[in-house]
Design a protein that fits this description.
119 residues, mainly beta, seven-stranded mixed β-sheet, four-stranded antiparallel β-sheet
């Protein structure tokens, strides 16, 4: 069983910063990719940032403000969010594509962490 647990969400003023963390645990053989998605009220879930190997990519709306990083030793992915805007308010979900002993490319989601940016 593989689990993803997010932390670090909260309330912040516009222009402020937050750092999200997501730790993967369980019977993980390797992690192929990790990402952060978000879903604002009344909107579809969207990709925020993705990392696989040495590559990263970002949604245009967060480029230059958000940074995704990984600690492979801890099976943890981070999202550093700077210069936050009201439109960044959303539930942020962690995603991982992992290989376990019995299954490859298992896609897992965390339960989400709420980020609220006040203007």
């Amino acid at each position: 069983q593989v689990q993803l647990v997010e932390s670090g969400g909260g309330l912040v003023q516009a222009g402020g910063s937050l750092r999200l963390s997501c730790a993967a645990s369980g019977s993980i053989f390797s992690i192929n990719a990790m990402a952060w998605y978000r879903q604002a009220p009344g909107k579809q879930r969207e990709l925020v940032a993705h990392t696989s190997g040495s590559s990263t990519n970002y949604a245009d709306s967060v480029k230059g403000r958000f940074t995704i990083s990984r600690d492979n030793a801890k099976n943890t992915v981070y999202l550093q969010m700077n210069s936050l805007k009201a439109e960044d308010t959303a539930v942020y979900y962690c995603y991982a594509d992992v290989d376990t002993v019995i299954k490859s490319n298992l896609e897992k989601w965390g339960r989400g962490t709420l980020v609220t940016v006040s203007s």
